[in-house]
What does this fold into?
Amino acid sequence: MATERLVKWSKESQEFFEKGEDKSVVLDLVISHLCASQTGEGFEELVNSI
It folds into this structure.
């Protein structure tokens, strides 16, 4: 079951984000198809968290 979660920025993360030209960052993620928390509904929550 998908849940609504909010992520709180750390001070350092917020400052890093705000220094970007267009206030964006590039994230490289590795998703394991064998990890239960990263498949099915867990994958949906991971994507929504990002």
In short: The chain is about 40% helix and 0% strand. Residues 1 and 41 are 6 Å apart (CA to CA). The radius of gyration is 14 Å.
